[in-house]
Amino acid sequence: MENINKLIALLIAVKGYAKNIHYTVHGDAFYGKHLFADRIAGADDDDEILDGYIDLLKEVCILGHGFEPLSTEEYYNKSLELFPQTSDDNDSLNFANMLTLIVQTLDFIENLKDLSKGDENLIGAIAQDLQQNAGLLPMTV
User: Fold this and answer.
1) How distant, in Å, are the alpha carbons of 18, 76, 116, 121 from that of 42?
2) Does the predicted model carry a pTM greater than 0.70?
3) For 19-36, how does the pLDDT look when each residue is reduced to its tens digit (9 = 90+)?
4) Residue 129 half-sphere exposure, CB side, CA atoms within 13 Å?
């Protein structure tokens, strides 16, 4: 279960970092970079992908196995340790950091073991969405 808690913290970090850099973009392709960061951060109610996954991880992978999830505060504290540095004047660095964080999360997922079929299905869907965003990131840098 500790691995699931770490995955939740990683997803919170991805979402939070995207929210941070979404307000720092400027220069060429400002609007596209802003929208892409919004997409990852889930700025619209219809686009709360990571929040939905975080909730499902708690329900399927933790509660579904008879355990209790950590408090929101505990998850956020764990996620803060994972945030990359944000630059106010270097979009390329911020998006490169975002890519690194997403790849780190994907690597973590790839190394998860001993999952139930339900856990595998959910975590596979999360990996698919992260991988898609990682594939689009180099286009924004």
Assistant:
1) 9, 17, 28, 22
2) yes
3) 888 777 766 666 567 677
4) 19
